[in-house]
Amino acid sequence: MTIKTELKDSLIVAKKEFKILSRKKALIFPLFLFPIIMIVFFGYGMGGTVKDAPILIINDDAGRASSSLVQEIGGYTPKYDANPMFSVTYTKDMSQSEAESKIDAGIYKGALIIPQNYSDSIAKNESTTLTLLTDSSDTTTSGAIINALRQLLAKTGLVSLNIPSIYGDLEYLDFITPGVIALTVFMGCISSIGSAIAGEKENGTLVRMLMTPVSKRSVILGKTIYQLILQLARTVVLIFAAYLLVGFNMNGSWLAVALVLIVFTLSGVGIGIIMSSRAEDMESFIQLNMLVTMPSMFVTGVFFPLSSVPGWMRCIAYFLPLTYAIDAMRTIMIKGQGLSAISTDFIILTLFAIVTFTLGVHLFRREA
Amino acid sequence: MEPIIEVKNLVKVFHSRRRKITAVNDVSFDVFKGEIFGMIGPNGAGKSTTFSMLTTLIKPTSGSIKVAGFDVENHDYKIRPLIGIVPQKLSLYPLLTARENLELMGNLYHVPKKVMEEKIDYYLKLVGLEASADRYTGGFSGGMKQRLSVIAAVLHDPQILFWDEPSTGLDPQTRNVIWKLARKFNEEGRTLVFTTHYMEEADNLCDRVAVMDSGKMVALDNPERLKETTGSTNLEEVFVHFTGEEVRD
Ligand SMILES: Nc1ncnc2c1ncn2[C@@H]1O[C@H](COP(=O)(O)OP(=O)(O)OP(=O)(O)O)[C@@H](O)[C@H]1O
Ligand SMILES: [Mg+2]
To answer: Interface pTM (ipTM) of the complex?
Structure first.
């Protein structure tokens, strides 16, 4: 078995998959329409609350007024929640651009800059301005931060907020689009590879294919190639649809998006194969699939930021590749950052891909 | 006679839901080059499991198998191109046409395109499916599907054919076609190993018949001699002689 034959075989398998897909008229339509519907419906229908949002306070003022403000922010709790809304890091002497780069890197959701003369101005009853930078790619959190600070500052009546928007004026729709893309790729991969395998198990074609000289690896590779092409095509359609329908702007590089999605698709395929190897037939696979994909829809930060879900859910999220894919997609598509900004996400996704894919190939048995 | 398949002390144990099932229990036999070799036996006797091991789909628990001189343990990729398989469970893609299903098989067996197209036309005509060549197989009758499965397994010109219950559930006309194909392929020099629940089919086609029961091979000889030694008038009686009247689980 040379690598060339294996590759050729896998292309035969991939071609077959596409031919069959092209005949499933009732499948193609929802395949591309489903994510668009999600964006539109969820985009207009949902929001969320925030806790423990990491923010940075750059206090260049040594006076009393500023220290009491800082304390108030640290202890601030939202109306219906006893937990502090912010987890605050304090510093001083940091430039605005440096703070912005920290937000770019996703370390902080917001940064408040208190100028040197703040306490003096308050003492003299003069008006003054604070600068608040927020991660506006996360519209829910940044909205909550802005509201909370406005409330706190309203008491004195002297302080106004200057809020430069780092990534332009963004709305919730912009926030969810990258997440929905990652989610649909994830769900699409798992359900289509899994149900294809479970279905072929049912109708005997998979076993028949494994009786031919074609290797198990080629069969899996063929199915993976098919998934890669399909999911990338869906993404392109989706980005254009989001642009046309809700005015979504793609700020980052298409290549970076493709790179993330390729690695991510491999994890999806791996998970799909692992799940289908556990399922005897189509129906058990569908139920298993629901069990995995439904929760991941809510804990990984597709519709509301990770910072807004309870701690135990966040713990689950860290074990799902979707979480990192969403973060990477947002960083690229909204913040317009390059690969260096998503290197951690990318490394974790690659590890996920290697582990799940290897396990999937291992569990994919000849015996039906 | 020269053996083309050599089976020694073959055992297959399945572990399913904590139960241990010995599907094939210490079976040894040879299949000779150029013969038609039939396997009969009650449901669950282990015929399909034996087939799966002979065709390299599953690994034996113990024992050895040589097919065309290669042992299945280490040389499954040498064996696969040499054998043609019609599984017990029909396995066609319902959303591909008859021709596309054949082409897929031909491609997976690396049959050169030109040769393949000629063969496909020839065999489609041979089994009377040329008019349905471009229809999806999802809409085919059981007989059409079975005829298609049989020719799909011969496109790569295999030396040995394995047919698992090729005529189950078919009307007499289709069964007749299957029998004709069996004889034709055999005359071309191919060895045919098949299973059946139709005793007259085994009687008519086979050079030798093996009777399996509960994982054991309880008899193996040519149909005439089996009848003689058991004092039976037909193979049905031979079958009952070796496997009893009791219904199997
Ligand atoms: N993958 C498997 N896992 C567990 N048990 C199995 C498996 N395949 C077969 N068996 C069991 O092994 C035994 C032999 O089955 P096999 O399919 O070989 O019988 P068969 O002779 O082909 O029967 P039939 O005439 O009904 O086709 C049966 O008890 C069956 O339940
Ligand atoms: Mg069987």
So the answer is: 0.86
